[in-house]
Amino acid sequence: MMKVMDLYELMETEPEELAQLKYEKLKEHTLRILVEIKDLIENDAFNEIRKKLIFNPAGDYMGTSHCYIDFDYGNGEMDLNEIINLLEFFKNKSK
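Structure (tokenized):
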């Protein structure tokens, strides 16, 4: 369980430190999901894998419908590209 910062701790934390914390937690979250999917594939748990996917219909006649792994962390559906963009953003801000 993640420690909740009190107001003093939050105000004393430098932006770069917050970015580093976000980067680390998001990276852990992403790796946990990928390992879980890997384990499910190794165990032929196909229906369990399907529960982790989000259907994305084309809808505009300009592409194809597909499914993607959901990396949601409480803010709504997120695909791997969105997660990678966030990881890169936080990593660059933590320097």
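The longest helix spans residues 15-42. The radius of gyration is 17 Å.
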